[in-house]
TrEMBL record:
Name of protein: Xanthine and CO dehydrogenases maturation factor, XdhC/CoxF family
UniProt xrefs under InterPro entries: MoCofactor_Util/Proc, NAD(P)-bd_dom_sf, XdhC_Rossmann_dom
Record organism: hydrothermal vent metagenome
Boundaries of every XdhC Rossmann domain copy: 45-187
PANTHER family, per the entry: ALDEHYDE OXIDOREDUCTASE MOLYBDENUM COFACTOR ASSEMBLY PROTEIN (PTHR30388), XANTHINE DEHYDROGENASE SUBUNIT A-RELATED (PTHR30388:SF6)
């Protein structure tokens, strides 16, 4: 770019976006805007558990352009009839599923096994991967029990702090489809660097609009 400083800045930005496919920009001292875009594999949803919530979440992820991997230990919940769009449907033990797939930093893993009975095994396996996002379904109480179990097995506190648990954004979701929206909203937020807050304008914007209208009427 004609400057060692600018080159270094561009390289730093490229290193941040290379794996995850994000876009960054910065303004030079001369006022030029520089865009740096990373090109990588498509984002991949790794759904551990092909039940009702898993199905709704996988459906939505597919419609959002994600590759979809399905893992379940039941043939009827991990097959191409149930998930015709899935890039991979894997029948695997929840404790060893990670070895069957290529998980990279553009992967988003959700542990939602049947009745949450195997979430601890699924999560422990997920924690061995480079996945950018690892989420755990269930209540805070259930998640705390899983965390305690994994801590006793040697998983570090810092690693567990990286887990999104409970998963999703608080939108009052109840149905599997609504829960899927909550989950994918959080994943999009993490992937795109969003904040997850409403975009609605504050009241003062409306008050300002009203005052402008009033002034024009008076004129």
């Amino acid at each position: 770019m004609g400057s060692a400083v600018l080159d270094a800045r561009a390289i730093e930005a490229a290193q941040r976006v290379a794996d995850v496919g994000n876009v960054e920009s910065f303004i030079t001292d001369e006022g030029m805007e520089v865009f740096v875009e990373g090109f990588t594999t498509p984002p991949t949803l790794v759904m551990i558990g092909g039940g009702h919530v898993g199905k709704a979440t996988a459906d939505l992820a597919h419609n959002l352009g994600y590759r979809v991997f399905i893992i379940d230990d039941r043939p009827e919940f991990s097959n191409t009839d149930r998930f015709p769009y899935a890039d991979q449907t894997v029948l695997a033990n929840y404790a060893a599923w990670a070895g069957a797939l290529d998980i990279n930093v553009n992967s988003f893993v959700i542990a939602a096994t049947r009745g949450h009975r195997y979430d601890d095994m699924a999560l422990e396996s997920a924690l061995t991967t480079r996945a950018r996002y690892i989420g755990l379904m269930g209540s805070r109480r259930k998640n705390m029990m899983i965390f305690q179990r994994l801590l006793r097995q040697g998983v570090s506190t810092e690693r567990l702090k990286q887990v999104h648990a409970p998963i999703g954004l608080d939108i009052g979701a109840l149905t599997p489809e609504e829960i899927a929206v909550s989950i994918m909203s959080e994943i999009i937020m993490v992937r795109r660097g969003g904040k997850g807050t409403p975009l609605q304008m504050d009241d003062w914007f409306v008050d300002r609009a009203a005052s402008i209208v009033e002034r024009k009427v008076e004129v």
